From TrEMBL:
Compartments where located: Cytoplasm
Lineage: Bacteria, Bacillati, Actinomycetota, Actinomycetes, Jiangellales
Catalysed reactions listed for this entry: L-histidine = trans-urocanate + NH4(+)
Gene Ontology BP, a term: L-histidine catabolic process to glutamate and formate
Pfam families in the record: Lyase_aromatic
Originating species: Phytoactinopolyspora halotolerans
Protein name stated in the entry: Histidine ammonia-lyase
Keyword match Transmembrane: no
Major enzyme class: lyase
Main location: cytoplasm
Family membership noted in the UniProt record: Belongs to the PAL/histidase family.
Length: 522
């Protein structure tokens, strides 16, 4: 894959930039305007450091200790102590792509020239990313206010040559060794720099951006899964008609319905029951209301993307160096704007997974599946078919409901009540990542089940687009399962088949297969 470098200027990054650096190791570079802005704001801090007045983060303690004046000869120790003490994370390690995303976003704020960092410190952060050195960051340590403190402190610690990191080859080594191996030198922090390196919402924002990137693809996959289930259950596309959908003008609903119409176009299975003898006048909600549910999730993603775009344009630090040279305390580090949409997305994700699981269950129930064998089994009773695959989906959906409980309504005061209201946005981000993975797996179970059900409708043929998806599913896992995922027959080891489709849903391969026939899906 040819990855273009990402330039860090005084302007905002895009979602694609974050994904390129976090997942594909795109190199980063500071532009000349960013370097000039960094140097200008550092000159302001250097001037303040030379006087005897109290300036937060320059010549005072932090948080509840902000009333303590720090003499000039102790200020380097002040910054070093800040990083060491705040690198207090615990628990499981955070994924590499999340750490790289939060590092990039912190560097993006440094590039705005609003933090007072030295140019050599910003360049050292660039070197850390470009040499693939990834600090070890832990699950717990951020309350989503005053910045993602512990996660960012662990990253800053690596700049000092302390703590543990993973090098470009994935080896766990001491940070000092990783820097030496890469030909880099640890930095020594000057006034204000420790605070500038940790006082941002970069961890929660990075996870929001990655989730938005994934959900754009997953909601298309949800439409594909729904179309396959509608077909497999001898449903109708009449409720998806453009004029009916337009009576409730939500843009997400319109997009999902358009996808369903394109995916189901030309289906011989659907034509087979468009006869006077068919007495069904409407389908169950999980089929008929798919555009409404998927569309509402799409609109939620759009709202969250608007928030992310504003945050990507933000310069978050406290205190901040203003354009006219003032150094001012502020509350922009509070994670509420991000925390709210992270929680909102978790609700939408749980609901899309929930309606998917209901469609899966209908295909397995003889009383509702319109003539399909029980559990799609080859010999029901001897074989169990997809019975336990539905259990897997149900277990996932149950967890997603728990993960949909908002984090952002919680707050535990910290720093001796100085920080008496926090966002818990980091926790919201962590649970959304797990929810996105769960949605991927629930949709994979539905697609795999629908693939088997559609083949059981043979000799009737599904729509060209859904047939292309079935072919992609069957061929993807043939190396591990000679009969291929989704192919009817006696019971087989099902976990590899599910995982095969999980990979296809996650990569966008199924959307590519459908689009090759139906045209670009929305």
């Amino acid at each position: 894959m040819n990855i273009s470098p990402v330039s860090l200027s005084t302007g905002p990054l895009g979602v694609g930039d974050v994904v390129a650096v976090a997942r594909h190791d795109a190199p980063v570079a500071l532009t000349s305007d960013a370097e000039a802005a960094i140097q200008a704001s550092r000159a302001v801090i250097a001037e303040l450091a030379a006087d005897d007045s109290a300036h937060y983060g320059v010549s005072t303690g932090f948080g509840a200790l902000a009333t303590r004046h720090i003499v000039a000869e102790r200020r380097a120790q002040l910054q070093l102590s800040l990083i060491r003490s705040h690198a207090a994370g615990s628990g499981p390690e955070v994924e590499r792509e999340v750490v790289r995303a939060l590092m990039l976003l912190r560097l993006s704020t440094l590039a705005t020239g609003r933090t007072g960092i030295r140019l050599e410190t910003a360049r050292a952060y660039v070197d850390l990313l470009n040499h693939g050195i990834t600090p070890v960051v832990h699950e717990y340590g951020s309350l989503g206010c005053s910045g993602d403190l512990a996660p960012l402190a662990h990253c800053a610690l690596a700049l000092l040559g302390e703590g543990m990191v993973d090098d470009a080859d994935g080896r766990r080594v001491a940070a000092g060794q990783a820097l030496r191996d890469a030909g880099l030198t640890p930095i020594t922090l000057a006034e204000k720099e420790g605070l500038a390196l940790i006082n941002g919402t970069d961890g929660m924002l990075g996870q929001l951006v990655l989730a938005l990137h994934d959900l754009k693809s997953l909601l298309t996959a949800a439409d594909i899964a729904a179309a396959m289930s509608v077909e497999a259950l001898l449903g109708t596309d009449a409720a998806f008609a453009e004029d009916l959908i337009a009576m409730r003008p939500h843009p997400g609903q319109a997009d999902s319905a358009a996808n369903l119409r394109a995916l189901l176009h030309g289906s011989a299975i659907m034509e087979s029951h468009r006869t006077p003898e068919c007495t069904r006048v409407q389908d169950a909600y999980s089929l008929r209301c798919s555009p409404q549910v998927h569309g509402a999730a799409r609109d939620t993603v759009r709202h969250a993307a608007d928030v992310a775009d504003r945050e990507l344009a933000a310069a978050i630090d406290n205190p901040v160096v203003t354009i006219d040279g003032r150094v001012e305390s502020n509350g922009n580090f509070h994670g509420a704007p991000i925390g709210y949409v992270l929680d909102f997305l978790a609700i939408a994700v749980a609901d899309v997974a929930g309606i998917s699981e209901r469609r899966t269950d209908r295909m397995l129930d003889m009383g509702r599946s319109q003539g399909l064998p029980a559990f799609l089994a080859d010999d029901p009773g001897v074989d169990s078919g997809h019975m336990i695959a539905q259990y897997t989906a149900a277990g996932i959906v149950s967890e997603l409901k728990r993960l949909a409980v908002p984090s952002s309504v919680d707050s535990i005061p910290s720093s001796a009540m100085q920080e008496d209201h926090v966002s818990m946005g980091w926790a919201a981000a962590r649970k959304l990542r797990r929810a996105v993975d769960g949605l991927t797996r629930a949709l994979a179970v539905e697609v795999l089940t629908a693939t088997r059900a559609l083949q059981l409708r043979s000799p009737l043929r599904p729509a060209p687009a859904t047939a292309a998806v079935c072919e992609a599913v069957r061929h993807h896992g043939s190396a591990t399962q000679p009969s291929g995922p989704g192919v009817p027959g006696p019971d087989r080891f099902l976990a590899p088949e599910i995982e095969s489709v999980v990979q296809q849903v996650r990569s966008g391969a199924l959307a590519d297969a459908a689009s090759s026939v139906a045209g670009q899906l929305r």
